Amino acid sequence: MDRFPNAADVDFHSPLDLTKAAAAVLDADGRISGWSPSARRLLGHAAEDVLGRPAALLLATDPGQRPSSLCTAHRPRSTVLDLVCRDGRTLRAAVTFSPIVTQDMAATVVLAAELKELRCWESQLAMLQGLATESPVGLTIFDTDMRVVWGNVSTDLELAGVAQYVGRPAADLFPEGEFISRHHPPDEDQIMEHVLTTGEPIMGMHYRGRAPADPVREHVWSCSYHRLVDARGEPLGLFEESLDITDRYRAQERLSLLVRAGKRIGASLDVRRTAAELADVAVPQLADEVLVDLPPAVIEGRQPPTGSAPGHSLLRMHGRTPEEFRTSPVSYPPSSPQALSLATSRPVVDAVPPTSPDGPAPDGRRSSLFVPLLAQDAVLGLATFRRSHNPDPFGPEEQTLAVELTERAAVGIDNARRYTSQHAAALVLQRSLLPQHLPEQSAVEVAYRYLPADSRVGVGGDWFDLIPLSGARVGLTVGDVVGHGVYAAATMGRLRATVRTLALLDLDPAELLTRLDGLVAQDSEPDADDGLGDEALGVTCLYAIYDPVSGRCVWASAGHPPPIVADATGSVALSALAPGPPLGLGSLPYENVELSLSNGSVVAFFTDGVVEDRRTDIDSGIDRLAHVLTWQRCPLEELCDRALSTLPPGPQADDATLLLIRTRRLGAGQVADLELPPDPAMVARARTDTERQLESWGLADLAFTAELVVSELVTNSIRYATGPVMLRLIKDRSLLCEVSDNAHTAPHLRRARRDDEGGRGLFLVAQMSQRWGTRYTGSGKTIWAELAIP
Across all residues in the chain, what is the average pLDDT? Predict the structure, then answer.
């Protein structure tokens, strides 16, 4: 098989070589006395046709110098002649005349070759000479022992004299160099051994090192290795061709660095992480160390300071992960290069030699580049690029690259600062809209947890509330606005306030959700211009009322997970009634669910962030929460912690809100009921029984006020009702007086005129009580009043 299948026409023998050229012998008279087969192939004349004849007959024109005169020359002569071929063609040939003189005879050996072929060979020879003397490609020949044999001029210049390396192994040329291409063995001896053994060339390997002629600057070469064989195919050694691609390689590295920077810097919307991303991208390709210094205001999300001195105090970022993040104060003297960079908003190079008259450079630093972080003409801080291992100072191209990287980082830091500011504002808004504390109630013991979503997602729309109601009852609500951000938080705050307002009207849960659904539907209409309609389309809510007198709990749900109940024995029950539609759809009615809770039962109200995660379904989350509630004898605070500890680790995609209550029943001695027939004479009985009951409770000092309030409420009920009137007194944190009847018309507070005979009763009740009001029941209404216990 041909060793050069793709280069079959390559032949570096001269066309005038004896093995190839047309050869003839002329005697002293210029007659042909010898004719070679190669001469016949070139001109077509057979030997018998030309032997003994004058060589001049083969000339197409008179050259001005006869062959006989060339034969008498005492040294070889070369010329160009037009020769006549057998077929009549004229062949322009290069001809060499070499005289042979002996004692017996004189003759001339004539060699001829086609002039065009000779010119082609001369071009090839000139090319080889150019590779050896003028080409920037370094050519080095090694023998079979991989020792240096020869190097061209380019190699000689790089090695500061190749002669000193002849006979030495390849490893001596660049002792500290290394291959940076990873698709072949990194050891040069292994590469050369592979080429010698297999004959397979290895090309395009990138090699990094310092040339003996330039030991200060690091270079990169593209190297290829080829085996050398003789005419018999036996290995002679191998040669290496190397091209210095330092500038091109660095340009490619700068381009790839910018590509990486575009993908990585500023993707986190976190100021500290963005600073770390700048360092991760620039080290070690551009610098050995990158430091980022920012004002405290930027880190906290506030506007960067303006008009301050260049050397004002900054904070230096440390750490690559949130767990490692820390800061340390740093300031620059007015005469420092850092201060100059901040003052002029331009990069400043501070090149420090490895050793100086004052001693070694601080921290081994050899060169530093200070670049201000600029965004929208505001100085956000300073980035410092340091070199300690690379002695090269930062050149113009590297400064341009550092500026571009810093500009990207500055935009990312500014975006992160703005996001931090908006996120903090949204958090403040959300926290301000959530209850700061829940009032203590005799009806329930309360504990709650609110776990915000991961900061990358934003502020959510969860809310919860406990609303004191008449009759020692409490309203309990949990809701969730789908989405995140300020709109979700604002929608949440408005809906929480609306729920509290409707709850104070003493509406039952289903009625409250129905009215709330209508309000949300109005807000979500296409022509709503408050900007909150889209957020309101994804609102879920649960509202419940617990009565500590009867132990009755009534709740209704608008697309929200129902509560989980654990009774005093630890048995956990889940609601079998599916929730109604989310708010704003207005499609299906809401239904009340009524439960009778024993004293000490624990009820869990929660949002889907507690039980649902991208990695687990909601049923598994509910099962986890239900299992935690089996420990219901534990303190509620401990139960809250147990419940949230079951959440999957890592950042949460949604807010998690948990509201736990432990029910309490008011004892029989705290409630007194009296049924009165609709007879005006029963008003006196009501006053008497009220006085007697208050004395038994030790509230005799409150008897006069309570009798007056009860007298007015019972009088109104007897006047307008058609059935019996119920009087209930409840001793709680205050004294509760309730009068119920079967009438559905509620009295209204008004200011009586001087000549009016009535209309002053409710005015007196309002003046003597803390609160009073009316709530409707399935059989009528209840008028109630709360009196402060002295």
Answer: 84
